[in-house]
Amino acid sequence: QSVTLWGRINTSVESQKFGTQDRKIVVQNNSSRLGFKGSEDLGGGLKASFSLEHGLNSDTGAATGGTTFWNRASWVQLEGSFGGVRLGKWFPGSYFATADYVSMHNHDTGTSSDALYATQFYTNNKVSYFTPTVAGFSAELSVAAGENTTTRAEDIAVNYDVGPFHAGLGYEKKGDFTQVAVRGLYEIGPVVIGGYIQRAENSFGAAGKKDWNVWRLSGMYVMGQSEFHLNFGKADQIIADDGAKQLTVGYNYNLSKRTKIYGFWTKVDNQTKGTYFTGAAGQDFSSLAAGIRHNF
Amino acid sequence: QSVTLWGRINTSVESQKFGTQDRKIVVQNNSSRLGFKGSEDLGGGLKASFSLEHGLNSDTGAATGGTTFWNRASWVQLEGSFGGVRLGKWFPGSYFATADYVSMHNHDTGTSSDALYATQFYTNNKVSYFTPTVAGFSAELSVAAGENTTTRAEDIAVNYDVGPFHAGLGYEKKGDFTQVAVRGLYEIGPVVIGGYIQRAENSFGAAGKKDWNVWRLSGMYVMGQSEFHLNFGKADQIIADDGAKQLTVGYNYNLSKRTKIYGFWTKVDNQTKGTYFTGAAGQDFSSLAAGIRHNF
Amino acid sequence: QSVTLWGRINTSVESQKFGTQDRKIVVQNNSSRLGFKGSEDLGGGLKASFSLEHGLNSDTGAATGGTTFWNRASWVQLEGSFGGVRLGKWFPGSYFATADYVSMHNHDTGTSSDALYATQFYTNNKVSYFTPTVAGFSAELSVAAGENTTTRAEDIAVNYDVGPFHAGLGYEKKGDFTQVAVRGLYEIGPVVIGGYIQRAENSFGAAGKKDWNVWRLSGMYVMGQSEFHLNFGKADQIIADDGAKQLTVGYNYNLSKRTKIYGFWTKVDNQTKGTYFTGAAGQDFSSLAAGIRHNF
Description:
The first copy, chain A, contains 2 helices and 17 strands. Chain A is mainly β. Chain A has one domain (4-295): Beta Barrel (Porin). The longest helix of chain A is centred in the N-terminal third of the chain and has 4 residues, at 93-96. Chains in contact: A-B, A-C, B-C. The A-B interface holds A 1, 4-7, 9-13, 21-22, 24-27, 32, 34, 56-63, 66-67, 69, 255-256, 258-259, 261, 291-294, 296 and B 1-3, 5, 36, 38, 40, 42-43, 46, 48-50, 52, 65, 67-76, 78, 87-89, 123-127, 145, 147-148.
């Protein structure tokens, strides 16, 4: 068999509150997925590989991407000592190097995922070069073809790992939008501290060009099979009164490497014109959640 | 590999007749499916498991649920000596405990499936508790969250097995609809006799609240690799002249445990205002079928 | 495990030109697919088997068939010394026996696939009989049920293989459309030469019934891991000035049996009213491509 099947079902039961609406009980998907991957040794240090990755709503069985079934990944890659070349669709390296990396409590999924990180998250029609790892550094350089219908996009990710210290840089440009973020993460015994700062810029047409900052700080304390998490982020206002803050407190209990049960409380606080997470100006969001995550 | 692939392709060629329309030749799907499942031993009697199950039209290749790809199941479960807790989507326990259990000739699929059984068949956003089996009894207690958009639903199933006798009870409530059914099944050498009786109730708004009964009786005679089936059901009228009867005569030849070829003749007889199976008042349905069912 | 997973990711980067439009860079899918198949030995020379085959756009992750997920195949089959009987959906045998067979450079996929071959390519609701192979001959006889909504279709394929010589015949009829094609292919050491000639007929309603011819000639020269390809086809005009020519020059480098990298240049030349490949009268198409094909 030259194919490996893998995936994750991550489902929680939550008490959610949107603005002044009635609190409601929700069975919530947290980026559940199913993947097929494989690689072939071609000799001479060459390797071919592929990945197909599907996102699904574990609460209803619906495909997250509708008819874009492989909405998380569909790529083929050739790699050797020179690095790797990849064609197709996958998530931006800039995202994995920054926002995803420090969202430790629940893999940056579900209602407690990072609501503030600025991105166009362009994933289709990509061609990338992956460098080999040299002195702890590795990089991914991507171009997404616009194919004369959408705007061409560029994405750069750099990761650096040395002992307990891990850093990353992400850069993304699509049309009038650009963002750059820097991430650091440090392991001190049972404590892990991480964070990123991001600078984003968008030419909002008539509204005019604006810059804004986003940052996040997150910490984890590990005690046996338990993990205690704290996570705070802030997006500055872009035009006026449209910023937001996000706070999450979480607890994970690892039943095994593959399976955990968890609970968290999360809140997004929008300024009067902020629309983060809820999509409605000034509407806040909070949720109290308990869930199961099972990797297979 | 922590994942098991399994499925069933069940396809028949049928001569179907709807009311007074011309008889037509149809290549017919009978609830074909593809599933991924797995479980992990967590030690201490604990077990995590998951299931993803997709329904497909084997005659055209279309997903039965459209973009709800995993329209049959997508759940994660944690179980121990205390029983099991399951989150996500799957078919109602009340259905498996009753109507499905006695539909022996073709797994309650296709044109000869039970057309009369009353159910809202709610499957999304469920949280359930499964009891351990005690003295032959086991039960499933489910709540489906309405999430402030649909009506909350409840479902209870009880199964009892002792030697050749098998019984079940199903209860379902969604908004103004409730149904309760009791099933029995007895094995006497090569003969198996089963049946259920159901009481359903619906508040039809202006039309007013109504109760009605449904029942079914089914028998199988096994001779070597051959099975002979007979199956009769009746739904009483709800308001007036809207009841129906259903009769199926079937023959299965088991080429192996996994593969059978089969034939059946089935008929749904609607009263003048009955719309069972056909959806059109008073329109009857019949089909003569030959098919292949292959489990993998 | 009674299921085999298999598939192909085939993605290219192309510089494409449609008529007088600006040349554009495109990441292009070339009929990527994912399949599940299996068979069961039933004893006495009998065998049951099934296939589910999904087409995907490797550049975007979209399902090629939308909600018709298994748009390439979903069938179940029973076979023995008498031949095989198959029910469900799959590509026409007439196509594999002719156009597909001689499109050697990239499996008749992507922008260099045969744009001229005349077919209705009907695949749903099929019942087929496959003959055993006798004296090098084998045949597939298919009927696709119209189910009173679409027109019934018939498809016949005959293949003949003896030593280095391979021939095929395809016949297809759907309503007012019929086509018949004959294919030959000869292996002479490192050289392979193949081609087909096709006669198609359509009753275009008011426009009146018309016949037309299509032909293609293709050659391959193999040198170690390298393959050099040349491929030319022509569709005669049907009514007036609506014919086309197609030329492809290709190079494949086989990194292994499963993985190749390749390049090609392809061009479709439409007459003033021809709409082959582009769908726009008189619009030509050309592409310069480099790609990776990985089988798994």
